[in-house]
């Protein structure tokens, strides 16, 4: 079998930059995957890694969770795509709404980007207003409405607005600092053409940044007062932070919610849902258009239904285990870095964390950018050498999965110890 180096050389000739999504690249070339199971991935070079990238948070239950594979396999015998309705679409939407009561009506789509694009178009159609507000460093997908001061891969390469985006579109996306309710308040006093405020309730796309005490409550209050649609982008936090996502965790009810990632545990499915009067704006009964050949396809829907069933069935074990393992990792890494006198911050919540090499608390994009990126790169490289794969960027989050065992956590702490020594050098 070809090795990663040769495959990357081949890939570069036919795939721009050799990868199909920017964050997958790192120097000098990424490992190519042979297979994955549970909490582990194997590469074509004979190495294996404990996987804490977890498909950027999608694999809450780990790779190839048995119930999901069984249900998808059963569905494959019955057909892969009909483009006509199925009962499982209805069942999945009912299940999602059961977990997320604010999602009174739901459309199933394929990706988080499609979900946020639809959410914003709905907000504009519903309010008949034009502009939207997003927060610096939040990432809501790779479309023009939201690709302004975005986190994730765009932050990693320092791109504020993508070339090829229309100024006319990005000018209608106003940007406010995360955790800065005051700045939002001032903007709302000046602007009266705001259709929506979209936010990651926990920001997982510039490392991990937590909402400060009153931030999300302030957003809810301010948007409600001005008839602005509040969109919680729960593509990362949905099902990960609790069975009802961040909105349940923080007890805040948004108008529209977007879900993705853990909803399908490795299969491409996402959802947009919210108040009936907003969702009923969708075509054909309403005048806001949304469509896709693959929306609600039976393969992804069977994966979604199986995921939600499994997550709900396991919930009394799932969330406590994830939180316990995450807290254990975070406290061990913090102690190690402190003993080595490495200035650092670790932000963490539920099953997510990230380390920043800085003295300053990381509460927004500008404080995240002050962290030492060279040290982070060293950490990433040394972790990889020691059998632990995290996303190759400071502007991403470390995600735990249910498949990580006690021994995996111990092994991970040892790998972080070695990696921190490499950072220290
Ligand atoms: C919070 C958030 N919203 C939306 C998206 C876009 O989802 P997708 O990559 O499935 O289009 C992402 C992707 O990382 C995300 O993290």
Automatic annotation (TrEMBL):
Protein name stated in the entry: Glutamate-1-semialdehyde 2,1-aminomutase
Cofactor section: pyridoxal 5'-phosphate
A biological-process GO annotation: protoporphyrinogen IX biosynthetic process
Alphabetized HAMAP family for the sequence: HemL_aminotrans_3 (MF_00375)
Classification via InterPro entries: 4pyrrol_synth_GluAld_NH2Trfase, Aminotrans_3, Aminotrans_3_PPA_site, PyrdxlP-dep_Trfase, PyrdxlP-dep_Trfase_major, PyrdxlP-dep_Trfase_small
A GO CC annotation given for this chain: cytoplasm
Reactions listed under catalytic activity: (S)-4-amino-5-oxopentanoate = 5-aminolevulinate
UniProt-recorded Gene Ontology molecular function terms: glutamate-1-semialdehyde 2,1-aminomutase activity; pyridoxal phosphate binding; transaminase activity
